[in-house]
Design goal:
Elements (H helix, E strand, L loop, with lengths): L12 H8 L22 E7 L6 E10 L5 E9 L31 E7 L7 H18 L4 H7 L7 H13 L18 E11 L10 E12 L6 E13 L6 E4 L2 H12 L5 E3 L21 E4 L18 H8 L9 H13 L10 H11 L14 H8 L3 H15 L19 H13 L2 H4 L13 E4 L2 E4 L16 H10 L14 H4 L4 H12 L23 H8 L13 H11 L5 H4 L17 E3 L2 E3 L14 H10 L1 E2 L3 E2 L4 H9 L3 H13 L6 H12 L11 H10 L1 H4 L18 H4 L4 H9 L21 H15 L9 H10 L4
Helix pairs in contact: 2-7, 5-6, 10-16, 11-15, 17-21, 19-20, 19-21, 23-27, 26-28, 27-28
Length: about 800
């Protein structure tokens, strides 16, 4: 019964200034304030075990609200010795004389009164956080306000800049407030889904030498089984910030161990935690756990298992449980319990006001509230046999045409309203950095930047079997770019291949892969692109021949071949493997080049990553590649993807060079994940055996086997041997790929080698590789063909000779240089 947060009220900070300008903590009501508080405001009492576990602290909160539901007054009382009589907190109270026992007051209100009766300091700080954040959630939901926006409204934009920044960062990374997509993975049958938010902080005295302020925000996503009371924590996004009042804060993430520890203490249970597949490693990471990455998200995969089965045990807190709940006083993990409680309410509609949140307590609360399970119908998928029947040639192609014609006759997708301008101040630095990394992984600039043009301004000509497609302007220019695109329009284009105006995009834009990206990654990419310089540039219009110029025909293609389902991690595989596949199949869209396509231009799923074409170059297979002279190891894949060179395989050139340039700027852990996943698709190899085989093949065969190829041999010795033999080469010229281990020499077709011989490598993937001259002006087609024939015979003697090399040389000469 998850509520639609997007339908709730959102706040305008300017309106907040008009309503609360000049307000301060503990200030008296102003006579000039025309707002009228309600007579009977919200009131709730919460419980928390004391540090020693011998008693329960009673935490009573009452408030008065304005007519719009925002808070005007706040009255809080905490007591250990006796229950607080209902309504006592609504009466005037005196502030506690023990300043150390007072909880921090984070929200800006007209009147705030706090009384804590805790002479022995038996109430842990997180108890106050739990009461405050649970109450804020209750009041926000009751007033039909977004819980995150409600808190932001009660924080000053200038004095509480650090608090607001960490809240925004965590909310953005958790995709808070965005509607759940129709194809998102739903809760299992019989389970209900919810998410909760909580926030905490410590504000120091504004004096010289005082410690900086600290803040922490959490978002918890969970599933609940109302029948058994089991709780499965799906995801936790948590962040923290430190800074001086009014100054730019230092924002970062929480270590994985701290998140896990806080969850265990809040729930009194043990958990297994792993980083999720859509989380990047920290920049510059060397393959560690990535604990310091911004807003670390965890997938806590084990459901709660409680040992408290009786109704009586529900109200008893052991000293061990109390110690777990009270041990930490730091603000970073303090919001965990409130975030869980708020998520449980979101899922079930029942509010738990006292931990622990075990199955017995949850079942009892649901029974008392008379809540029954809600089983949502499972999503229906088109039968796979229809897709298999329609995917091939012959009758499948005819049926595909008929389906496309039918789709062209149906009403198209609606245009989405333009926005005035995106407010880039809303995006946190962590979100923008995440978006930058997603853009690098997706090679956005590679396809959306024309030769000599501005980055992402579009205009690059992409040659396809169906005609030339020109890339569009991705900069936030209002007239020629995406400056007036809302996030909804951007996400629709990325996931469904439909532009803001409702027209279909051609699948040369790999939305079929981008659809697998997670919502936080998608939102971060949008934020990053919108924060870049706007460039006014109108790329040439794509004009394919009839009937391909009828874009609505693409709807039929999508029906046949496009799956909009987000990537689903494989629980049987490791986090590293899932991260690698997520990058390969999602943002990296490796299959766009490395998977062969059918007659309608769709990737052939049964030949996944088994070799394709890209801009006239052969994209070699990534699965058990027969093109490679020696098998690929995971270490060789990592070297190649990270640096553009593997001694056992050669140099990245052609369309692969800019891909490696982007990967070189990603966290090392991401590149390792890609290498790990790709290596897992092929039979495992022994590193020492591969090294022995590489040594045997490196120098090629004896020159006697190339008799009759003297012209090619002389050309090789004059132009190539200085760098490409074991005895040649000059170190400061860069790397020296050996022909006997070069994949382009052992491939079935000579195209890749021809491109390199003609054009050289004038834009290496990384600076350390060095440059290679091209020979198009030094040799004619016949000489290039003789050189290629010699190289093939000497360095790939186990492969058949290439045919029609003169024609291949002519094609390479006329093809655009990459």
């Amino acid at each position: 019964m998850r509520r639609n947060i997007c339908d709730m009220t959102r706040f305008d900070d300017d309106a907040r200034h008009r309503a609360l300008d000049g307000s301060s903590r503990g200030a008296a009501l102003s006579e000039a304030d025309t707002t009228s508080p309600q007579d009977d405001g919200p009131h709730a009492t919460y419980g928390w075990p004391t540090r020693d576990g011998d008693a329960v602290a009673h935490l009573d909160v009452a408030a008065q609200t304005r007519t719009d539901g925002t808070l005007r007054t706040w009255r809080y009382r905490a007591d250990v010795d006796s229950d607080i009589a209902p309504g006592d907190a609504a009466l005037p109270v005196r502030p506690s004389q023990d300043a150390a026992a007072l909880p921090p007051q984070l929200y800006r209100l007209d009147v705030s009164a706090v009384q804590v009766s805790d002479a022995g300091h038996r109430i842990p700080p997180q108890a106050h956080t739990f009461a405050r954040e649970s109450f804020m959630d209750e009041v926000a939901v009751e007033a039909d306000h977004d819980p995150v926006g409600y808190r932001l409204y009660h924080l000053d934009p200038e004095r509480d800049a650090g608090a607001r920044e960490v809240i925004r960062m965590v909310a953005q990374r958790a995709a808070w407030g965005l509607p759940e997509r129709a194809d998102a993975i739903g809760a299992p049958t019989g389970w209900q889904r919810g998410r909760g938010f909580a926030f905490d902080g410590e504000t120091s005295a504004e004096s010289e030498g005082a410690a900086p302020d600290t803040w922490s925000a959490w978002v918890v996503d969970l599933d609940v089984n109302p029948q058994s009371g089991e709780i499965a924590i799906r995801r936790v996004v948590a962040g923290q910030a430190t800074g001086e009042p009014g100054a730019a804060p230092e924002v970062g993430g929480l270590p994985a161990w701290q998140i896990t520890d806080a969850m265990q203490r809040a729930l009194g249970m043990a958990w297994d935690a792993d980083a999720t597949h859509d989380e990047t490693g920290g920049t510059g990471s060397t393959g560690g756990t990535g604990d310091e990455q911004a807003a670390m998200a965890l997938a806590l995969r084990r459901a709660l298992i409680s040992t408290q089965n009786s109704a009586d045990a529900r109200h008893t807190v052991s000293s061990m449980d109390a110690e777990r709940l009270a041990r930490s006083a730091a603000p970073a993990p303090a919001p965990a319990a409130a975030a869980i409680a708020n998520a449980l309410f979101d899922a079930t509609g029942v509010r738990l006001r006292r931990p622990p949140f075990d199955p017995a307590s949850l079942r009892s609360a649901l029974r008392d509230a008379n809540v029954s399970p809600e089983n949502a119908p499972a999503n229906q998928r088109r039968p796979a046999r229809w897709r298999r029947w329609l995917a091939g040639g012959g009758i499948g192609g005819v049926m595909g045409g008929l389906i496309g014609l039918a789709c062209a006759m149906l009403p198209g997708a609606p245009a989405l309203a333009p926005i005035t301008a995106a407010d880039n101040t809303l995006w946190s630095s962590a979100t923008l950095e995440r978006g930058r990394q997603v853009a690098l992984a997706g090679d956005c600039a590679v396809c959306h930047t024309a030769s000599g043009g501005a980055v992402n301004a579009g205009g690059l000509a992409l040659e396809t079997p169906f005609g030339t497609v020109y890339s569009t302007n991705l900069t936030p220019d209002a007239e020629t770019g995406i400056g007036r695109w809302s996030y909804a329009a951007f996400a629709r284009a990325m996931r469904e291949g439909i532009s803001r105006d409702g027209s279909h995009l051609y699948p040369a834009f790999p939305y079929t892969a981008f659809a697998k990206m997670s919502e936080p990654d998608m939102l971060a990419l949008y934020a990053y692109l919108m924060s870049q310089p706007a460039v006014a540039n109108t790329p040439p219009k794509t004009a394919l021949p009839f009937p391909l110029n009828q874009r609505r025909l693409v709807a039929g293609w999508n029906w046949l071949y496009h799956d909009t389902t987000e990537y689903r991690p494989d629980p049987a595989q490791s986090t590293l493997w899932n991260r690698g596949r997520y990058l390969v199949d999602g943002a990296g869209h490796c299959g766009a080049c490395h998977t062969p396509r059918n007659m309608l231009g769709a990737e052939r799923e049964k030949l996944y990553l088994r070799g394709g074409e890209a801009e006239g170059w052969r994209a070699p297979p990534l699965v058990a590649s027969a093109d490679a002279p020696v098998p690929w190891t995971e270490a060789a894949l990592f070297d190649y993807l990270r640096t553009g060179f593997s001694p056992e395989h050669g140099v990245a050139a052609g369309p692969m060079a800019p891909v490696v340039s982007g990967l070189a700027a990603l966290p090392e852990t991401d590149v390792r994940a890609i290498a790990h996943y790709i290596a897992s698709l092929s039979p495992q190899t022994n590193a020492s055996q591969v090294a022995d085989l590489a040594r045997q093949r490196a120098s090629g065969v004896d020159l006697a086997t190339t008799l009759g190829m003297e012209n090619g041999r002389r050309t090789f010795e004059a132009a190539c041997a200085v760098c490409h033999t074991e005895s040649g080469g000059v170190g400061h010229f860069g790397v020296r790929p050996l022909m006997g281990l070069n994949t382009s020499v052992s491939q079935a077709k000579p195209d890749n080698l021809m491109h390199v011989l003609m054009n050289g490598i004038d834009q290496p993937a990384t600076e350390a590789l060095g440059y290679m001259p091209g020979f198009r002006d030094a040799f004619d087609d016949r000489q290039i063909a003789e050189l290629a024939s010699y190289i093939r015979a000497r360095y790939a003697p186990d492969q058949p000779a290439w045919r029609d090399l003169d024609a291949a040389a002519a094609r390479a000469r006329t093809a655009p240089a990459h």
